[in-house]
Amino acid sequence: MHTLASQLIADITAFERQFHEGHLSGFEVKSAATIWSKKEILGHLIDSARYNLERFTEIQYAESPYSVRPYNQDEQVKTNQYQQRESTELLLLWAALNRQIAFVMQCQIAETLALPLLLPDGTTSDLRFLMTDYIHHLQHHLIEIRK
């Protein structure tokens, strides 16, 4: 997990630099009412970080197997009104949540990474899968924002 945590820190740092240097064109532009802007994608990543930090933490003390609760991504973005928020504040929140996630990842040992979980589709996996999947999801959306 140390490699993934290091990758997450590198992703955070690179994205912050690109944001502050103005390399994210069209950040607030909505191409259609039902399509997320890049700013709203960042809001979605904030929601994802909030939910996954909770999952990564709870699995370590909850009843086993841990049941991963899904969330309505579109409604979260809509209800949190990310499009109306200050972009710099969203960046700070996203970065802080992800730095905590990286710290939690670094603290894991083989036994905690193997903790079982039940995914919303009924399949089973473990904390290692959930953390790895989180990083892939985050990187996918960062690529979208950078386009």
Question: If helices are DSSP runs of H or I spanning 4 or more residues, what is the number of helices?
Answer: 6
Radius of gyration: 16 Å
Remind me, CATH topology? Answer: Four Helix Bundle (Hemerythrin (Met), subunit A)
Distance between the termini: 28 Å
Q: Strand sequence of the main sheet, in spatial order?
A: 1-2-3
How many domains is the backbone divided into? 1
Strand content: 5-15%
Q: What order do the SSEs take from the amino end to the carboxyl end, as H and E? A: HHEHHHEEH
Largest sheet: 3 strands, mixed
Average pLDDT, rounded to a whole number, is 97
Quick overview of this protein structure:
Helices cover 63% and strands 5% of the residues.
What this model shows, in words?
The chain has one domain: dinb family like domain (Four Helix Bundle (Hemerythrin (Met), subunit A)), CATH 1.20.120. Helices cover 63% and strands 5% of the residues. Strands 1-2-3 form a 3-stranded mixed sheet. Helix 1 packs parallel to helix 6 and helix 2 runs parallel beside helix 4. The chain starts with a helix and ends with a helix. 25% of the residues are buried.
